[in-house]
């Protein structure tokens, strides 16, 4: 397999594998594995690599012969998740249910991908490993905490990857690397065997080069009865469903985002360029300060409990970002946490009534100030700007708190040549609609590469 074939889509990988003889299939898997190991080492995006066998692929499965790799937050059946810490030989548990479902559909797992320590971080910064560079622009930031996933997908090592999203940790890295990032409705994708951070907020999500690739992986994650009602278990039928013409009813807060001028221009052009028939209603922005404060209370309280052992035993070696998330939860009054939890249901109902009662999807900003420089969000850098770091998750974390599905999609290029993305938000269970919107309107990744 030549290096360019690393950039194949799910459908191409599946087609090549299905047409090959058994001997050719073994060669395909071996070549894909070797290429992944070589490029992952150059990019520092993998913490472990695996040697899959073509004999394990399910014949005729939705992902038959598709090579993937995932965030190092999943039990693989061979190793316990590294969680962004120095690797140890902890006894592994059973394979995470999500990975098992992908394998049952014929996918191969090529490796575990780098992440921020304990998923505590909005960037690729991790003192325990080499720095990750954005494959699109070495001076640009890579969002976190699913940083290795975004780097591997953007570099063409795999067409898609599973990450976790607690405060935007799938959507931020997808946006910085010009990819599609889906955070599903909580509970739809099983969390068994996945390292937790804040269970109320945690969601297993998908980062992909295209909405179609993401939809194929997402369909494989669901149990048969759920997948049948959302997306078909066939690549051609999934593409047909995503491409089906719709009369989109859209609400939008893009005009009220306070975006940087060049980013605002791209977002405005995107809205004006959406084809008829459509309807776009401009809405005021939600109270992000209040919603994100409540999300932070839940994050701090639950992370303090989840990471209690690490704080007691690994305190001296924990990254500053981990401590900044875990320690406040120990000092926080319990009544704050109980109040924050009690507000989720009424605030979600109010949000749905305001933005989605008469609209299919809500369009919101993603990174309205653009993809920041890597130096601006790296602590310890002379150019570090805490406002730039905070801006990475401002438009993402509150949706974990409200428990709503969301998807980021690239729509254009800013004045620095970096991708501009928007976020589409839907009602619970609207993942197929979100993926269809991205399939029809996202800027193709090939166009981002040619910027």
In short:
InterPro entries: Amidase, Amidase_CS, Amidase_dom, AS_sf. The protein has 451 residues and is an alpha/beta fold.
What does this structure look like?
With 451 residues, the chain is of the alpha/beta class. It has one domain (10-450): Amidase signature (AS) domain (Amidase signature (AS) enzymes, Alpha-Beta Complex). It contains 18 helices and eleven strands. The strands form two sheets. The protein has an eight-stranded mixed β-sheet, with helices on both faces. Helix 9 (261-273) links the parallel strand 7 and strand 8. Helix 10 packs across helix 12 and helix 10 (288-306) crosses helix 13 (334-342). The longest helix has 22 residues, at 22-43. The relative contact order is 0.13. It holds the Pfam family Amidase. It comes from Achromobacter pestifer. This is Amidase. One of its GO terms (molecular function) is catalytic activity. Residues 25-435 form the Amidase domain.
Count of helices? 18
Sheet with most strands: 8 strands, mixed
> Mind telling me the CATH superfamily name?
Amidase signature (AS) domain
Mean pLDDT over the residues? 93
How many distinct domains?
1
Helix content: 40-55%
Beta fraction of the residues?
A: 5-15%
Radius of gyration: 20 Å
Broad shape: globular
Q: Tell me the structural class.
A: alpha/beta
Low-confidence stretches: none
Architecture per CATH nomenclature, i.e. the level-2 architecture? Alpha-Beta Complex
Order of helices and strands: HHEEHEHEHEEHHHEHEHHHHHEHHEEHH
What strand order characterises the main sheet? 4-6-5-10-11-9-7-8
The CATH topology assignment is Amidase signature (AS) enzymes
| Overall number of strands | 11
Distance between the termini: 27 Å
